Structure formats: C-alpha cells, structure tokens
Automatic annotation (TrEMBL):
Pathway: Cofactor biosynthesis; NAD(+) biosynthesis; iminoaspartate from L-aspartate (dehydrogenase route): step 1/1. Its EC number is 1.4.1.21. InterPro entries: Asp/hSer_DH_NAD-bd, Asp_DH, Asp_DH_arc, Asp_DH_prok, L-Asp_DH, NAD(P)-bd_dom_sf. The active site is at 214. Belongs to the L-aspartate dehydrogenase family. This is L-aspartate dehydrogenase. It catalyses: L-aspartate + NAD(+) + H2O = oxaloacetate + NH4(+) + NADH + H(+); L-aspartate + NADP(+) + H2O = oxaloacetate + NH4(+) + NADPH + H(+). NAD(+) binds at residues 126, 184. Keywords: NAD, NADP, Oxidoreductase, Pyridine nucleotide biosynthesis. One of its GO terms (biological process) is NAD+ biosynthetic process.
Length: 262
C-alpha cells in the first residue's frame, strides 16, 4: 500500500521512521510528502534523501502519483485547503479533526467523497472505545455519552491553582468552541456517537497530574460502559499524544491487510 503525507511534523516523522526506516509493515510504504511552503523545501529535500521518497510543493503533481491513501499530518488550515481537492482523487486520513467541527464543511467533504467513491478516514486518536460507541449507535439505542477530560492545570490555565478545578461543564459543541486546541477528543467522540449537541463534556484542570486523562462513559440499550485512558506524550513532543500517533500507524496497518478486526 502506497501512502502520501501532507505536511511532516512530529507525527509525520514518526510514521516515516516506523514505516520507511524500520519497515515494520512490509506491505506499506510512504512514497511522497506535500508541503507548499517555500521555507519547508530544504527540510523536505533532506527527508526525501533519508527516507527514500519524493516531495512536492504542488498539490496537483503530488496527487498525480499512484497512492492508495493520503495522510494529513499538518493542521486544521491544511485540512480546509486540501481535503476537498484530495477527496476527488484519493482516500484521505485526517489527523486534524478540529476542522470538522464546521458541520457544513464536514457535510461538503462527505458529499465529495461519495461523488468520487473515496473514503474519509478519521483515526481514534488519543482515546479508545469508538468501536463500542458506533456499535451502540447502529440501532439508535445510544442514549447518553459523556467525556471527562482531565489535563495538567498549566496546559489549560494561565494562573496557578492548588487543586483540581472544573473549568467547563456542558455540551461538546460549546466545549469545542471555547477550547478548540484542547478538545479534539470531543470532536471525534461526537462524530462517532450522538453529535456535538448531545455529547456531554467536562474539562478539569488538575495540578497533580502530568498526563492527559480521558474518561468516556456511555449508556444505551446495550447497557453501559466506562473507559479511562491516561496518555503519555510522544517522545520529544509534549503537545502530541503518543496514542494518537499509534492509532494512525494501526489504521494504516489494517488498511494494508486482508483481515480486519473490529
């Protein structure tokens, strides 16, 4: 399976190291990177030599390559700019799911993907349990979904607090609006479940922890479940969850296999 990357930050480097350098998946290869910024070209040239791939500053040339899937490894702005173009030609795995909080844009991408028989792929990122949420949703029997996100206080507040402090309690739609850089988990959970206007969110600033801790609770006709994940940051990049990078790696692995679990 041939993969292209849009942008190449911490997660892009991680994928290149694991897939092209360590070759942990013999049937998956990253063949190209797209970045139109002039300042990025020397960096891309070095990546091309190191990881045996091509690089482009032109989206049309990039998309003319034979690739099975394009992975967005950039930012929300890159999703808004490139996703409509990519989905006319390739399947697209989106990391910066914050772009999809715009419901009109999300609907537009779904329409483009359907028209061109392409797939828009959203990784689970820093959480788990999405398979359970989606299974419960199938019959319309998913009644309540709650996300409790607990982060180090310094990541959420400018002032110092001595004890854990609830800084938000409400619906995902409002949480996403107020904390756009801290609540990607709420977006993907809402897309998998009952929507941003129904998913409950609580955000807690805790000075006693050094990890991001996400607790997901769901209730419905199936019964109920509770899942908690305490995320380590990626080595060398404290802003990115290691589990997010691993979830993308796992998705690419499953896409290149004949047996799919889950």
């Amino acid at each position: 399976m041939k993969v292209g990357l849009i942008g190449c930050g911490a997660i892009g480097h991680f994928l290149l190291e694991k897939i092209n350098q360590e070759k942990i998946f013999p049937n998956v290869e990253i063949v190209s990177v797209l970045d139109e910024r002039e300042k990025s070209q020397p960096k891309l040239a070095k990546l091309a030599d190191t990881y045996d791939l091509s690089f482009f500053s032109d989206a049309d040339r990039f998309l003319s390559l034979e690739m099975d899937v394009v992975v967005e490894c950039a930012n929300v702005e890159a999703v808004r700019h490139y996703a409509p173009i990519v989905l006319t030609k390739k399947d697209l795995l989106i990391i910066s799911v914050g772009a999809l909080v715009d419901r009109a844009f999300y609907t537009e991408l779904e329409s483009i993907a359907k028209e061109h028989n392409r797939k828009m792929i959203l990784p689970s990122g820093a959480i788990g349990g999405l398979d359970l949420i989606q299974a419960a949703k199938v019959s319309g029997g998913l009644q309540e979904v709650t996300l409790i996100t607990r982060k180090p206080a310094k990541a959420l507040l400018s002032e110092t607090v001595e004890k854990e402090t609830i800084i938000f309690k409400g619906k995902a739609s409002e949480a996403i609006s107020k904390f756009p850089k801290n609540i990607n988990v709420a977006i993907i959970l809402s897309l998998a479940g009952i929507g941003v206007n129904e998913t409950n969110v609580q955000i807690v600033a805790d000075p006693q922890i050094d990890k991001n801790i996400h607790t997901i609770k769901a209730r419905g006709d199936f019964g109920e479940f509770e899942l908690q994940i305490a995320n380590h940051a990626m080595p060398g990049n404290p802003k990115t969850s290691y589990l997010t990078a691993l979830s993308i790696l796992s998705l690419l692995k499953s896409m290149g296999e004949q047996t799919i679990i889950g």
